[in-house]
Design a protein that fits this description.
Blueprint lengths: L5 H12 L19 E5 L4 H6 L7 E6 L3 H14 L4 E3 L2 H8 L5 E4 L7 H9 L3 E4 L7 H13 L4 E3 L7 H11 L6 E7 L30 H5 L25 H10 L1 H6 L7 E5 L14 E7 L8 E7 L19 E6 L4 E3 L7 E2 L3 H8 L17 H11 L7 H20 L2 E5 L4 E2 L25
Parallel strand pairs: 1-2, 1-4, 2-3, 4-5, 5-6, 7-10
Antiparallel strand pairs: 7-11, 8-9, 8-14, 9-10, 11-12, 12-13, 14-15
């Protein structure tokens, strides 16, 4: 929430990144009292949560989805509020016909189709709100980060927890020295619930058998840049996250929430080594495994010692320290282990708590460190409101594409280690895995003809 001007960010980030591009003219901001004209790409699923908060405050002029069935309720709701809204199946056609009428875009599609519409939108000078995780591979993250800077738009990744009071407390408490030195972080999430039609669906065979494409789904557009394959309902509409060609499993999905606090507070940056324990791979490296432990190693920086962070999946959890005043861990959560005391959160960073006695906790709450990070005026979990306000008042949200790209890249390096059950030694400056060159091709995945964007910014 540091409301620095975007033109100042452009200068500092370009110097830091060593960018050689010359930015286009600064996009002028609208009057704060003027409604924005917004296009919604991805109307079903997470799309609803992202456009619902602005139905009364902004104008939705276009809506786009490849699945008429999943988007039906959303279409009806948007249409009831904006009778002149136009409906599209292909975002490229939408931009061709309406780019002069659109100020900003909300993208809530599967991970593998985040990059293309965001790049087209930014090239046209549109502000972009993107569902988390930011992208599907490391090259996409870095290119989105560079493009948001180059085209000088207001960007936001929708990891809701980053708008909360809780994530700010984590950073403030750490910086105030409450935790002491933090060298360990542990985070965990519950079991994968494999059920037909659920978010995790185990196919009957690999590859899944060919099925008839439903009339309500444009399968080719759903695949987007991904290599063509026959349709099967285990992919769409819900359970694509389990297939690494489309999603990044639980780590890719939840790390932007659960690991956001320590990533921000400790200024973790990129790991130099990641290793995964995967007791049983379901299917080579194409499908998510039921259990794993991913161990990150982050080198020291000017402010802290090296940090080890472990991510546990499938019901696996860290061991309880006997000094912690808890008997069991919740289904998901995160612990920062400090030399003075430790901090715990749930799967989201909303409500941090010190692992101290009840009396010590009450005493602490009555004498908390000063708030040094501004709070959002809209309350918790309203990133789209922050994004809208930033567009109208010329500043960058905290979880802009620069931050969101780094947080997502950190997660994706872990996902690659998990995917191949491998130890990865990562040279971030060169975007290179040094000990497993066979995995490097997944840092930048090939895109099908008609879906190659962003190459000029490489």
């Amino acid at each position: 929430m540091n409301k620095f001007k975007r033109r100042d960010f452009l200068l500092t980030s370009s110097l830091f990144a060593g960018a050689t591009l010359i930015s286009p003219t600064l996009i002028s901001c609208r009057n704060p009292n003027t409604k924005l004209n917004i296009a919604v790409i991805g109307v079903g699923g997470r799309g609803r949560a992202n456009y619902n908060p602005i139905l009364d405050s902004e104008n939705i002029v276009a809506m786009c989805d490849v699945d008429d069935n999943r988007a039906r309720d959303g279409y009806e709701k948007i249409l009831s509020n904006f009778p002149k809204v136009r409906k599209f199946t292909d975002f490229r056609l939408m931009f061709d016909e309406m780019h002069k009428e659109i100020d900003a875009v909300i993208i809530s599609t599967p991970d593998h189709t985040h990059f293309a519409p965001a790049m087209v939108a930014m090239e046209l000078g549109k502000h972009v709100y993107m569902e988390k995780p930011l992208a599907h591979n490391v090259w996409e993250c870095r290119t989105l980060k560079k493009a948001a800077n180059y085209y000088n738009i207001v960007s936001q990744m929708g990891n809701q927890g980053h708008t909360t009071n809780g994530v700010r407390q984590i950073k403030e408490w750490y910086e105030a020295g409450i935790l002491g030195e933090v060298k360990e972080v542990h985070a965990w999430i519950g079991t994968l619930d494999f059920r037909p039609g659920h978010y995790w669906t185990l196919p009957e065979s690999f590859p899944p058998s060919k099925q008839q494409v439903p009339e309500h789904l444009n399968w080719d557009l759903w695949l987007g840049p991904a290599k063509y394959r026959d349709y099967n309902q285990v992919y769409a509409p819900k359970s694509w996250r389990g297939f690494f060609d489309f999603g990044n499993g639980q780590l890719g999905d939840w790390s932007c929430h659960t690991l956001d606090g320590p990533f921000w507070a400790l200024d973790l940056g990129m790991p130099n080594e990641v290793e995964s324990y995967v007791p049983k791979q379901i299917n080579k490296h194409h499908f998510v495994s039921e259990q794993s432990i991913v161990s990150y190693k982050f080198p020291a920086n000017k402010k802290r010692s090296p940090v080890t962070m472990k991510w546990y999946e499938g019901g696996l959890k860290p061991e309880l320290d006997p000094d912690w005043p808890i008997k069991e861990l919740e289904r998901s959560g995160m612990i920062m282990v400090g030399s003075k005391c430790s901090l715990i959160t749930g799967g989201r960073p909303n409500n941090p708590k010190l692992l101290v006695s009840d009396q010590e906790w009450e005493d602490f709450k009555n004498n908390m460190p000063d708030q040094t990070i501004p709070r959002l005026k809209w309350g918790d979990e309203t990133p789209v409101h922050e994004w809208i306000d930033a567009i109208k008042n010329d500043y960058l949200p905290e979880s802009n594409f620069s931050y969101g790209a780094d947080l997502t890249e950190m997660a994706l390096i872990g996902t690659l280690s998990q995917r191949f059950a491998a130890k990865i030694q990562y040279e971030s400056k060169k975007m290179k895995i040094t000990n497993r060159p066979d995995i490097n091709e997944f840092l930048k995945e090939p895109a099908r003809d008609g879906w190659r964007y962003g190459e000029s910014l490489s």
